[in-house]
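User: Can you predict the 3D structure for this chain?
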Amino acid sequence: MRAKRSILTYFTQSTSSIILMILSFCATPFILDAVGKTVYGQYRLLLEYIGYFGLLEFGLYSTTRILVSESLTQSKEKVLSVIQYSFIQFIITSLISLISLWTLYYFKAYISQINQISDDQLLPIALYISLIFTLLPITTLKAKMEAEQKGYLTETASFINKALNILLIIIFVFIKIELHTFFLVLFISHLASHIFIFLKSDISLSDIFKPQLSVNKGTTRSDIFLFDLAGKINLSSDSIILSWFVNIEMVTIFYLSQRLVGIVSSFIFGISNALWPALSNMYFNKEWDNLRKQILFSTRLSSYVALFFLIPILYLNSPFISLWVGKEFQAGTTFNIIIVLNCFIQSLMSLWGWLISSTNNTQLARKNLILSTISNLTLSIIFTKVLGLIGPILGTLVTSISITLIINIFILKKLFKITVKELLRSSTPSFIYLLINIILYYFFFPHEAILSPLNFIFSGFFITFSSALISFYLLLDTTDRTYLINKLGSLRDR
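Assistant: Here is the predicted structure, written as structure tokens:
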């Protein structure tokens, strides 16, 4: 059952990602032509600012998942008590978010780049975001679904959100689209996905508002908040830094040049999303030997899946950008290498980070989070001022290799009695294979090549499947290959 749900979640996520990828790639050139680099850059920048409001729940969402996961081993009443507590807390979070949003709106003149957006755009944007904040309590039900290994439902909700967002924007492109229109669409798509979550949940409003049972309110919320804060700063501050130290147009180039990596990362990180509930369940059921084996296997699997997607992107990202939106949006060879290395390392950090947080051990990562966040933010600013566009991603890469990766390895060693040698043996071969391809790309691949659509498709298939075949037989042992084939076969039979 664990394996079936994990594979079903990953299959749902992968299928939706393919559809979203096609929709996004078709829509973006029309959107850029309609609004231009500056407005599109303002849209991406506002999204990053708005993303920081998610910190106001102070780790509540992740804590809910952990408490539900623990409660599933006890009773349904215990699970319901967690949901009741979380729902009320999210109502409070909604109110805090609304107050914070309108306070910032009042002081908008003092926020860099935001003060350049007219009030007739910002006011409706603030109204639409306010409506989105009122939907926050429904995310309690989403957290419960993820803890119960029903990620295929939450992935479907995410697909509804993103697909509807893209389709509505395309419609408005042919009618009339302004900056605030993006956020009207954002509200509508969020509303649709939250309605889906509510309808698919086995918890009703009458259940939520029954007399509340006692519940452990979660002693780890401060640690999880630190986790969320670090993740937000490390992954969602790049556009803000570029807008401050370069210009708003660079935000558009920065985003589009990473779009291919951003989309396939949903496949790569989907491994972590699909596996963590099962691994967490093993931990709380004290299945230590099985857990240790599955962590090492999951590390090898994550590395292999990352290579499957990242090696083609390494070679073809620049030609793709030229075909998609034009050569002027290319970010260069060094940029491509750094984003591929970052994504590979983050595939491991995603798996290991989920494992640490979902087993209620975030307190072990405090120093790591603080140190890596300070390092990443500082280096990103310095590198951006000196090197420009590659600054934010270079800061992330240096921090990940020198701090985050090393500390996480030793945390896993302490928690699960996995040796450093075992973890390195599970991930290093894939990393070496990636480095070989980076050397080949940098010294021998024609970086300025402009491919026709047909040549691009042929090259993509050839690089993807030849690399996948080589890495399948070189990087996975016989046991891993047999296990994967059998699991996929059993899922097909079912």
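Residues 2-51 form the longest helix (50 residues). The chain has two domains: 1-218, 221-494.
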